Amino acid sequence: MTRKQRRMTIIGGSLAVLALAAALVLNALRDSIVFFSTPTMVAEKHVQPGKRFRLGGLVQPGSLRRGDNLAVTFEVADGSAKLPVAYKGILPDLFREGQGVVAEGALDANGVFKADTVLAKHDETYMPKDVADALKKQGHWKDNYGAQASGGAKPSGDATPVATTAQGNSQGAVR
Amino acid sequence: MIAEAGHYALVLALALALIQSFVPLIGARLRDPALMNVARSTALAQLLFVGASFIALVTLHVSSDFSVANVYENSHSMKPLIYKITGVWGNHEGSMLLWVSILALFGGLVAAFGNNLPLSLRAHVLSVQAWIASAFYLFILITSNPFLRIANPPIEGRDLNPVLQDIGLAVHPPMLYLGYVGFSISFSFAIAALIEGRIDAAWARWVRPWTLVAWIFLTLGIAMGSYWAYYELGWGGWWFWDPVENASLMPWLAGTALLHSALVMEKRNALKVWTILLSILTFSLSLLGTFLVRSGVITSVHAFANDPTRGVFILLILCLFIGGSLSLFAGRATSLKQGGLFAPISREGALVLNNLLLTVACAVVLFGTLYPLAMEVLADFKMSVGAPFYNLTFVPLFALLLLAVPFGPMLAWKRGDLLGVTQRLLAAGVAGLVVVAIVWAWTRGGSALAPLAIGLGVFVIAGVVTDLVERTGLFRLPFATTLHRARGLPRSAWGTAFAHAGLGIALIGIVCETTWNSEYIATMKPNDVAQVAGYDLKLDGLLERQGPNYREMVAQFQVSKGGEPLSVMTPSKRSFTTRGASTTEAALLTRGASQLYISLGDVTAEGAIAVRIYHKPFVLLIWWGPVLMAFGGVLSLSDRRLRVGAPKPARAKQRLQPAE
What we know:
heterodimer; B: six-stranded antiparallel sheet
């Protein structure tokens, strides 16, 4: 093999691996990305049933109902719209009415959001940032949320996943 | 007094770092040994002062001096001593102080043990170390001073985040930082080589032990963090692909590639420019990780924009070092002498493939981590990239890599014989296929890919065994000769064997856990029995207990299998009064490499409790694998050719040597 051929083999091999990786990434981007929405955005965009997304907002006070076998329903509100959520399993330690929550799942045919994951932070004063941003954007931000958030929003500890998902090894957790 | 002394020591360390940044460089220009030697003394003095500063902060935490803001915010007088100490780095300011302390430690080690380095190389390396150190001292002093006082000291502190009140905090961050920051040494060596315009095989021999040390700690740190998340968070998950985890995985992937490419450079004097680039990239990824974790940019780009001082400062450091080093690389790399080319089918070729797959896998993780951030900034919509993305991208690339792993060490340098190696690996391949068939036949359910993946893991391990058998001549030669040969094998060969086998073992653990994990979630009343994976778990009852700074509710489970009692498991739920927060303490029962896992939910009105019980088959292999990899690293490090700083190859092949 000549010098040139050797070089071409190595360059060709590198390009092949890069092309493979690019193909894998593009393929994965098509259907494994999950978008974030608030109830208002869901109402405006008419999200299709079955399409997975993350829903963020405040748990509507008084809406939490516990059923048999760890089934729970509650409503997520963002000030202008509400969306019913159904979930089965153990809620995170910090799930409270009136506090921020992020759930992942999809709408069913009746317009109920079937969540398979509920995310929350291990800090009582925490307001999920996605939720806070969305609320601010829509003008529903109250100053006392800010006071609450400032106490807990500071990163505490290193490289420790502080948030959890309601299902061990399904979706990723936020920090 | 102590706080002020600590603060002052840190300022002095900055002053020393500034001297160390420039004086040795001038010395190298003027070829003045006295000026160059300044680097050595300043590096050691810097270590002394940063160490003093760190000890001052530890003392403040231990003595619960709540007049210091950092102690007030993260400590509590009732907190057990161990968490008072570990709480020092359980917060932003303290963890940055730990970061610079470890940086100074590595600088001090180079200064103390780098006597056999050429004087100018050592001066340059330590100067570059001091640039990094100065930037981070400034960062701490300007934006994150841990020694700030409060005007009206409160009587009691706000306590440490309960999740962090665990032994994991004592081990995980220091290990991870030893890894992250350890890569600064190979970075400094790379920059020094670019400044000097000279690089040779000896350079790789100096760099490799330092890279190896960092890699060992990073491997253990990531594994430890994963196990911590597994038992502490109470969801039984051990890897979430969240940006903080990715931030530690990326330097690990690049660092692993660096270890392998430095090998080619050391042995064959090839891939020089690439090795330099990898050194720069590895540490850049460590800096990026620090930025991602420390700036708050992950939680939200907007949060970052709201309180930008820290984030912008680290971003500046990031741009300065990554941009500066890459420009220097672009300017100087062409002037470095290129090494020889080699046949694509050879040990070098295999290592190039390893590098290619590792860096591409790393690029994929980088893309997945930064894409949501970029989209949020540019297109103003939010999304998350989670496990499904990485399963479709990272996993296939890594599978390819694992398939190639057994071939690498068996190919000869310069010109390898792929057909011959394939023939020799036939037994390993057959072993893998037999396992695929057995697993296929024995198990029901789960992904069809699982048996294949387990077969791949077995192939990797069997490949390692084949290589060792070949090298020692087991079954071919008399046993005594084999033993003699085994003893004569370089420790680095054993290191390679253990590290590669660890990869296979971790893979098997990951596949078993994700595929055959059984889960039981329900509400249980006392005397209810849950049946999980052949085990009977009877809830005896609930009781309340008072801990030092929390109250806990403990549930007691009797575990039995086939009517035979095995053990008692006591998961609990703790509520911490000061922060009003609660944590779930999972109970674990280890059976071989498998584990039973119980964590608790809420108590219902009728006195029943929500429980989550998992049976996780072979889950411990996930962490034994990395431990084995790190052990391989330690063996390789103890190889005399690689003794830290040893510039010369093993001096003599004499049989008679003093025992070590």
